[in-house]
Amino acid sequence: MSxxxxxxAAEREALAAGVVTRLTERIRRLxxxxxxxxxxxxxxxxxLGQGDVAxxxxxxxxxxxxxxxxxxxxxxxxxxxVVTHTHRDHSALAARLKAATSxxxxxxxxxxxxxxxxxxxxxxxxxxxxxxxxxxxGETFALAGVTLQAIETPGHAANHLCFxxxxxxxxxxxxxxxxxxxxxxxxxxxxxxxxxxxxxRLRGRGETLYWPGHGxxxxxxxxxxxxxxxxxxxxxxxxxxxxESAPMSIPAIVDSVYAGLDPKLVGAASLSTQAHxxxxxxxxxxxxxxxxxxxx
Length: 296
Known about the structure:
Blueprint: H1 3-14, E1 20-22, E2 27-31, E3 44-48, E4 52-56, H2 63-72, E5 77-83, H3 88-91, H4 94-101, E6 104-107, E7 133-134, E8 140-143, E9 146-152, E10 161-165, E11 170-174, H5 192-202, E12 209-212, E13 218-219, H6 221-245, H7 250-257, H8 266-282, E14 286-289, E15 292-295
Parallel strand pairs: 4-5, 5-6, 6-7, 11-12
Antiparallel strand pairs: 1-2, 2-3, 3-4, 8-9, 9-10, 10-11, 12-13, 14-15
């Protein structure tokens, strides 16, 4: 087994569902039992503080995860449920956890659902999400030993927030920045224009560690965010290079740019390509007609 695969196996073991892991003096992690190609080993739910605690991203609708959260905080009081965004793998358990604990729900605003049939990741948002307090850019939520500052980071989802954790100079990055994978940016709710601006907003903030919504911590985050920006710009350049040779549809671009892609990820790659193309259209670099894109 290679060093890389050994490290991957060790990370997966550390992120096993149902296991409470103490990460720092103030942070515990409990991974939800919802592994997939898009969630890695499952959604990371964080328990913050001691005694009176906050639960950040309670996770999907899961009886097992609810029971594990209540067991992990036995003898303590959950006073707040903090939500980064309303994709169901992050927020769907909030209502049941509130019912069990009387905690207040704070964080992201509700998703603005489109009229008519759900489209794209619109269908993945939590329709039952009802926050007691919406946090805007720069607003804080605090309990003993824990101060969280909201940072608006739309892109993966229009209502996405990251939370700076002042006491530890770290940041809960939700699905905006993850070490194990790049984020899916899926129109119409997801926007590559917003996503790139949100990455720029994080760059240079000074936090030394990110705790993401899936997978292990992002170490040296400033360098990692720069690399993410570079990766997206390279993808943009590859799309423009293909369109330089001939007008193309999104499926043709995906076949050309994502050589050897796992078939299970073709849908996500198509949505990210669409997000790139919408951004390029806004910047006047690409035009579209009848589903065919050309470079201007």
